[in-house]
Amino acid sequence: MLIFAHRGASADAPENTLAAFELAIEQGVDGIELDVHLIEDELYVIHDRYLHRTTSGVGRVRNQTKASIQQLDAGGGQRVPSLWDALTCIKGACAVNIELKGLDNIIPLVKLLDQAVEKLSFDVSQFLISSFNHHLLFELNQLRPDLLIGGLTASCPLDYAAFADRLNAYSVHIDVDCVTPAFVADAHSRGKQVYVYTVDELEDLDELAAMGVNGVFSNRPKPALIRRAHYLQSAEPAPLAVEDYSPSAD
Ligand code: G3P
Ligand code: MG
After folding, report:
1. Could you say which of 31, 45, 150, 194 would form a disulfide bridge with 95 (CB–CB 3.0 to 4.6 Å)?
2. For residues 36 and 44, is the Cβ–Cβ distance under 8 A?
3. Is the pTM of this model over 0.90?
4. CB 224 within 8 A of CB 218
5. How many angstroms does the Cα of residue 119 sit away from the middle of ligand 2?
6. What is residue 47's DSSP assignment?
């Protein structure tokens, strides 16, 4: 089971910042998930459509200029990184799941990933591009079938993972509240990996591991990595108390 740091190691560093990505790499994650919006001709790493939750700014992300977004504080003095800055920081150390949020065409992304393969230490197979916008994913697959696609769903689809077939997706990314053994079995029968978000509780991790889920996105990847090491070492369930695990407030 792969462990992706969701928005970086975002429980312990400001989400979607270089600090969160560096911490995730230090913790030994398999991958980093991050969210991108297009501002002018450049992709920036930020989750929300609005600035106020995660930065010192207010207003819509899409109304920013490169100059205005670059001067914001994204927490603890961190900046909102461009995707290029993020990839320069990660530099092939782990996989990168780029979730497309605020953009309406995939050309800027494709150009940037080609440069990242050329100039940074990435193999193209380290990129996994996901989105709730299946139109964008479809367009991407038509243009660049070599890029891996993750079909995101925030619902519990009646026809399970069938949507992933139409996208020619490598993986399906589903909410922890919706994934079931039947969904996992259906996805696997279609040859799709199943990645689940957002998994911050070890009880959930244990259940998902038993279901045969292939990966999880976690805001606290470190306890998940420790827990996974127990799975690998022993067939017996590990004790739930993990040294540096503290349950989330919500
Ligand atoms: O990519 C998994 C997850 O991040 C999707 O939801 O809202 O956290 O971007 P969200
Ligand atoms: Mg995301």
Report:
1. 31
2. yes
3. yes
4. yes
5. 26
6. S
